[in-house]
Amino acid sequence: FDLLHAGHLSYLEKIKQRADVLIVGVNSDASVRELKGSGRPLVPARERARLVAALKPVDFVVLFAEKTPLRLIRSIQPDLLAKGADWKQQEIAGKAIVESAGGRVMRVPFLKGHSTTGLIQKLKVSQRRKR
Description:
Layout: H1 6-16, E1 23-27, H2 29-36, H3 45-53, E2 60-64, H4 70-76, E3 80-84, H5 95-100, E4 104-108, H6 116-130
Parallel strand pairs: 1-2, 3-4
């Protein structure tokens, strides 16, 4: 959730249709850098969390500092764990924990043409054209 866009909202709306309470884990700045590289995040963690929390489908937001939300998942013990469809089932952190407690894992398709990486690329192209 670095640069919020319509794809994020669509993703969260799809999850909320199946969830009574939607708790969103947001990566700390350090964990985003570890996952995405030194140029990310563009927006600091507290701001990202605040923006996500303001979205209608979201009930709670929790920041986590680890590379994966495994510790958060263990703590919350959700009935439903949702992740983007770009993740393979076997790669989803916490899958075994949720399923062993009788919960389910949901892979959510993205809204085509919407991504933070795509937005960043468009901004770079736009900047080059202005020069």
